[in-house]
Amino acid sequence: MLGKFVSEVNGQQLNAAQQVGALQAGQNVPLHQAVVAMEEASVSFQLMVEVRNKLMESYQEIMRMQI
Length: 67
Description:
Layout (H helix, E strand, L loop, with lengths): L1 H23 L6 H34 L3
Helix pairs in contact: 1-2
């Protein structure tokens, strides 16, 4: 499940980079489409980082438990 999530975030990052590259190359890409793709990639990455942080906190809490 995490691998799928990471690959989806990676796909959004690649899509945003492709949109920006096409815009810089002068191709017929609307500016708002490139900006939206960049923001979607940014929000997805932030979400992935927060999920990772919560998972790490949970793991550390479990490790602190006494048996």
